[in-house]
Structures are given as structure tokens and as C-alpha cells.
Amino acid sequence: MQDQLSALLAQAAAELPALTTRPEFEAAKARYVGPHGALTALMKQMGALPKEQKPVAGKLINETKGQLQTQLDTALARIEAAEIAAQLGPAVDVTLPSPDAPPGTRHPLTLVRDELCSILRKAGFVIADGPEVETEYYCFDALNTPADHPARDAQDTFYLPDGVRFGNVAKKNPGEKYLLRTHTSSVQIRTMLAGKPPIRIVAPGRVYRRDTVDATHSANFHQIEGLYVDRGVTVRDLKALLDYIFASLLGPDTKVRFRPHYFGYTEPSFEVDLSARHLPKVNKEWVEICGCGMVDPLVFEGVGYDTDVWSGYAFGIGLERLAMMLYGIDDIRYFYQNDLRFLRQFS
Ligand code: DAH
Questions:
Q1: pLDDT per residue as tens digits for the range 315-340
Q2: Per the CATH hierarchy, to which homologous superfamily does domain 108-346 belong?
Q3: Domains of the chain: which residue ranges?
Q4: DSSP states of 282-343 as a string?
Q5: Whose CA is nearest to atom 7 of ligand 1?
Q6: Ligand 1: which of 182, 183, 238 to mutate, most ligand atoms within 8 Å of CB?
């Protein structure tokens, strides 16, 4: 009996790993352990054995049964895995982007920037760009901001150490310094030097000031610069454009007010206040949002434009303040903390 049991196990060990389908498996299982199978037949033979041999034979049969079951389980698991793989199709290409990747949300500043750019594009403006590392020429000199102007003070502006060269930002004058641009107005000069009027550009970007960070100040923030140069441009055109963009962005109830101001690169110059009491959490009547004016003829002369022919307006809008108004945000620092609980509330 022992030999027969060993032979049965050996036969199973040879046969079961070669099975590939469930019907084959079921048939083999019946042959080994089914009611009419080989093991059952051996168990029946036990009855004919002498009484003293029965316990030993019974133990052997039980052991064999356990081992056969293990072999059958292994074979079934293998066949099932193959069935699942066949259902799933070819192997998964793990280099493909996951279709289930969480989409994320756009940053509120990106949303406001893109919205404003798209509003301005409807009015014929095209997007322009300039470097964040600038020279004094583009940031100040060409914008008629003299060397002793307070905006150029080392307390207000991040100057870069002498001797460091910035690849594609060429100095106009040998003695001038590199700095982190304090406003996007530098893009006005770059655009005018690179092309001919008429010009109608919008230049969004990051700017830097030596400000102490608090709820309304940040050492880096964002602006959107606009410049329009053409024949016969007037303050009326400027006011009409600002009325249009702020009403489009914040709603038709928005009011826009000009206050006289001074900027070296515009004459006359204005600060622009918005009244938008319909927005949540806007509790001041007028909020300052923007500087603007008619391009100063001195700036045109500096870039070689004929001031008898060309006129224009320019404006610079603070993006953070606009986003804070629009979304009812009361602290500028939220924009930069990358807290998903904050960021996921927009878009
Ligand atoms: N550059 C100014 C600032 O950062 C804003 C500004 C004022 C931009 C007048 C302009 C302008 O284009 O004409 O405060």
C-alpha cells in the first residue's frame, strides 16, 4: 500500500503542474481524490488488510490525501491566475500616464492671471514676457526713474552682487547693476526696443521688493503690465479699457476711479481704485488696485519712437490684491504656503 501511495503522489506531482484549463483540472481532481478516484480505491483496499496494519495504513492514506490536496490547490491557484491575466489582456504598460491621476486644481493667482489675459486678448492685446533678473536700465533708467529715486533704494530693491553675470540679460551701461525686477514695467521697454509701433501687449509676471512680509505685503508678488502705443491714444481709451477689464472680471457693478498720481514713465499718471461692494468680504468702498497713465514722451524718445506720431497708455495691476478681492481672501501669505486645503477651494 505504501508503494502505491508514493506512486500516486509522484504521478500527481508530474501531471498537475502541466494542467492549463479548469476542465482539465476538474477531471484530474476527480481521478485522484474523487469518489471514484485512485485514493478512494486505495482506502477501500484498507478493509482487506490485517487488523494490526490498519492504523498505519490509515495514517499513510491521510498524509497522502493532505499532500494531494496541497498539490491540487497549487495547480488551481496557477490556473486561476492565468484566467485573470487572460481577462485583463496584455501586460500593463506602467510608463503610460495613469488615467486615474487626481487632476489637481489651478492656483488662484494663475486663475486670475489667465482670466485677465483672456479678457485683454479680446481687446487685441498679445502676451509679452521679460526676465525677472533685470538691469537698472530696463527697470528704472529707461522708465525715466532717476538714480536718486526712492524706488531704487537698496532698502526697496534686491540688487545682485557685482561680478555675477546673467546669461542672456545684457547690460546697457557698464556700471549698472543687476537686480530682481521691482515691477513688470521693464517689459514695456524691452518690447518697444524689440519692435515698432503700433504695440498692444500684456505682460504678466513675478516681481520683487524688499518688503517685510505681513498680511498685505510679500517680498515677491505678481503684476500684469499693459502697454498700448498707437496714433491718437487718449486718457479716454485708457479709462474705457480699465472699465471694461474690471467689469468683465469682477462684474458689471464694479466702479473704477482715477486719482492723480506721479510715475516717472507716464504723464499724466493715475492710481486706480475699484469699488466692488457686491463681492464677498469687500468692506472698503475703494480699494487701490493699479497704477497707470499716458506714456511719457521721454520714454518714447529713449526707445527711438517719434513723439509727434506716437502716443500711448500703460498700466500695472497687482494680481494678489485683485485675487484677494475676487475670492474674499484676507491674507496674502495664503497664496504662498501651498496648503492644499486653501488651494483646493478655487477653480
Ligand atoms: N510699475 C508701477 C508699480 O509697480 C505700476 C504702474 C504704474 C505701471 C503706471 C504702469 C504705469 O505701466 O503706467 O507700482
A1: 999 999 999 999 999 999 999 999 99
A2: Bira Bifunctional Protein; Domain 2 (3.30.930.10)
A3: 2-88, 108-346
A4: --SS-EEEEEEEEEPHHHHHHTT--TTT-EEEEEEEEHHHHHHHHHT---GGGGGS--HHHH
A5: 291
A6: 183
